[in-house]
Design brief:
The complex is a heterotrimer of chains A (228), B (229) and C (220). Chain A has one domain. Chain A is 76% helix and 4% strand. Chain A is built from 6 helices and 2 strands, in the order αααααββα. In chain A, helix 4 runs antiparallel to helix 5. The longest helix of chain B is centred in the middle third of the chain and has 31 residues. Classes of the chains: A mainly alpha (228), B mainly alpha (229), C alpha/beta (220).
């Protein structure tokens, strides 16, 4: 198969995969113990969304560092694209999370450590875009945004890892670490669907991201044609 | 090629900031007035008796840091914003090496914050009837918290000074970066209020200083980019 | 013997040449400079002329390394060796309309600050002499810039740009707000520095254009 044909087929494969995950998550996956009714099924969407939000934050970091090294406008476009998608998925994760929280704990919001973390992540994304909007010069916008992204990334772990341990978490733990070995506390069927969903959402992110980067490339090409 | 040392340049900038501030007192009065106004509002509304005994250490520590934090948001950005507003930044950019600028402004902001803490903390304790068991612990938390706060705030100030509408942008950018510090500083202050043991504030102190160390290194690495581009 | 030769070389330190090629700058969709190239070297003064908005100041900012060009390249050459960007600023002096002195400091305190930062502070004496040379009488040296007229400020700016005997001097509208006396003094200063300093002047003043050994005319 040629590369182009593969490129044309992949989005369809991705679509089918996600459709399969949706059906499996809502209908096939066995009920999990300890949750009210079917509320646990949101986990197949919520966890991958939160994962993609964090993944996008990392992609944004890498692109930002690359920009400061290469000074290539495309790397800045990559950073911005990752942040846009990251913000979208952070919002989705927040919404699905608070629906689950309402069903399970009776409240939409509990300031649970992970809820707090995703709000901070959202605030950082919002600040990132506020900064981008406030700088007119393209080169300066790119480097200031990159500097902010890197600085923000450095402070995030303190929130996720250092501070939340002060409080106890309501959040269901999917992974349990016992004496160095990591063990999954899940039914095999549920685990299969969850991992498929994680793969599917990662693929979705990759597809949307490549789409944005391609768009940026086209716009840049048109720009330089106008220059000439 | 450079004929001046980093230390000499940083000192020259600190001295210049102090001379300017002593003459104009803009940052000092902005921060001071903000803090005093909020302090009076809080003391008037809550006072020493309206909180349940159990809640007092935590709520009063949180309120104290919220006052300090927002007061600092009113004035710490000025070190860089005024350079851009008064069109003096370019001359400074050409004459001083970036790290001297960062260190000079950072030290000045730290002095400003410490001056604020020296005035506000005793006043707050008096007005709210807050008894501190571990005075030394509180002093350490205030020092470390002030230092870490001024590192992040100074770096963000340098960022936003180069954007338009910078004064509104400052708290928007600084808040998410400073939240971990705020949480740790409140925990540390609460520990110092409740216990005379120095060990009680140690976990918070460790969190604050490691955050300060990491942000300092990052700020030093990134500042030349922010300042020059 | 060798020491003496070294000193002669150091005294005539004007060895830095600024060479730029294909400099293009875009602000958003608007293009300000399109493929500008040229050279600034000691004894060979470059004049940048052109109508308002043609990008004179932008070009000078790019030459100073204060602004990144969208395309194109600027190099500082020590002989044939390109200098790293960190070595540009210490060798550079610049005066421009958007480079104000500190209002809340006196004229002398301003110069003292920049001399300290550049590591060439040898007491107030030389700085006072420089100010007087630029026509600012001693009585004004300790007054705050806030009380200065725009012509007096311009003289302080020129002193700031030259107090460290830069190897590269960029002057953006250097005679703005200067009277006839000020202009004469500026001319004397430029004349004195020219043999050892690479100077570029952005101006539309015919008297200053006449100083030029080369000229770039930017289109509006």
């Amino acid at each position: 198969m040629t590369k182009d044909a593969l490129k044309a087929v992949l989005p369809w494969v991705l679509g089918l995969w996600l459709a399969g995950v949706t059906v499996a998550g809502l209908l096939w996956a066995p009920a999990a113990a300890g949750f009210h009714g079917d509320s646990f099924r949101i986990v197949f969407f919520h966890v991958p969304q939160a994962w993609v939000a964090v993944l996008a934050f990392c992609v944004n970091l890498v692109a930002s560092i690359r920009y400061l090294r290469t000074r290539a406008p495309l790397d800045d476009a990559r950073a911005a694209a990752a942040a846009r998608l990251g913000m979208l998925f952070a919002i989705l994760a927040t919404v699905t999370g608070s629906i689950f929280a309402k069903l399970e704990w009776g409240m939409f919001w509990n300031w649970d450590p992970r809820e707090t973390s995703i709000v901070i992540l959202l605030l950082i994304y919002a600040a990132y875009f506020a900064l981008r909007q406030a700088v007119v010069d393209e080169e300066r916008r790119a480097s200031l945004a990159a500097a902010f992204a890197i600085f923000a990334f450095v402070t995030m772990p303190f929130l996720i890892f250092v501070i939340p341990r002060v409080y106890s978490s309501l959040h269901p733990n999917l992974v349990e670490a016992t004496q160095g070995a990591v063990r999954f506390k899940m039914d095999p069927g549920m685990r299969l669907v969850l991992f498929s969903a994680l793969a599917g959402f990662t693929g979705l992110f990759a597809w949307l991201y490549s789409f944005e980067v391609r768009l940026a490339r086209v716009l840049a090409a048109r720009h330089s044609r106008e220059e000439a | 090629m450079r004929r001046s040392s980093l230390l000499a340049e940083s000192l020259a900038i600190v001295c210049k900031e102090l001379a300017s501030e002593l003459r104009q007192r803009v940052a000092l009065s902005a921060i001071g007035l903000f803090a005093i106004t909020t302090l009076i509002a809080v003391a008037y509304q809550i006072g020493p008796y309206s909180l349940a005994e159990n809640d007092r250490p935590f709520l009063l520590s949180a309120l104290l840091w919220i006052i300090l934090f927002f007061a600092s948001m009113a004035g710490l950005a000025r070190v860089f914003v005024k350079e851009e507003d008064a069109h003096t930044a370019k001359t400074l950019r050409l004459a001083a090496r970036p790290h001297a600028v960062l260190l000079g402004k950072l030290v000045f902001n730290l002095l400003l914050l410490l001056a604020l803490e020296v005035v506000v903390v005793p006043l707050y304790c008096g007005l709210m009837g807050l008894r501190i068991e571990g005075v030394l612990g509180l002093v350490l938390v205030m020092l470390a918290g002030g230092a870490t706060l001024s590192i992040s705030a100074t770096f963000v100030a340098a960022l936003i000074a180069r954007a338009s509408g910078s004064n509104t942008l400052f708290p928007i950018l600084a808040l998410p970066l400073l939240l971990p510090l705020l949480v740790a500083a409140i925990a540390g202050t609460r520990a110092a209020v409740g216990s005379p043991e120095l060990g009680a504030v140690l976990p918070a102190l460790r969190a604050i200083s490691s955050l300060g160390g990491v942000t300092m290194v990052t700020a030093l690495l990134l500042f030349p980019v922010v300042w020059r581009d | 013997m060798g020491v003496v030769i070294r000193e002669v070389i150091v005294l005539n330190a004007g060895v830095v040449t600024v060479r730029f090629d294909g400099v293009t700058k875009r602000f958003g969709r608007q293009r300000v400079l399109a493929g500008v190239g040229g050279e600034v070297r000691p004894g060979h003064l470059l004049v940048v002329a052109g109508p308002n908005g043609s990008g004179k100041s932008t070009l000078l900012n790019i030459l100073a390394g204060l602004l990144r060009p969208s395309y194109g390249e600027v190099r500082y050459l020590d002989g044939d060796v390109p200098l790293p960007r960190d070595d540009w600023y210490p060798r550079l002096g610049m005066a421009a309309p958007d480079m104000a002195p500190y209002e809340e400091l006196s004229a002398l305190a301003n110069l003292r600050l920049f001399a300290r930062l550049r590591g060439c502070y040898n007491g107030d004496g030389p700085l006072g002499t420089l100010l007087e040379e630029l026509g600012l009488a001693a009585a004004h040296h300790d007054r705050l810039i806030a009380a200065f007229s725009s012509g007096m400020r311009q003289r302080v700016k020129l002193a700031q740009a030259t107090l460290h005997l830069p190897e590269v001097l960029l002057l953006d509208e250097p005679s703005a707000n200067l009277d006839a006396d000020g202009h004469l003094r500026l001319g004397t200063l430029v004349e004195r520095l020219k043999p050892t300093t690479a100077i570029a002047v952005a101006t539309n003043d015919p008297r200053e254009i006449a100083w030029g050994d080369a000229k770039i005319e930017l289109a509006g």
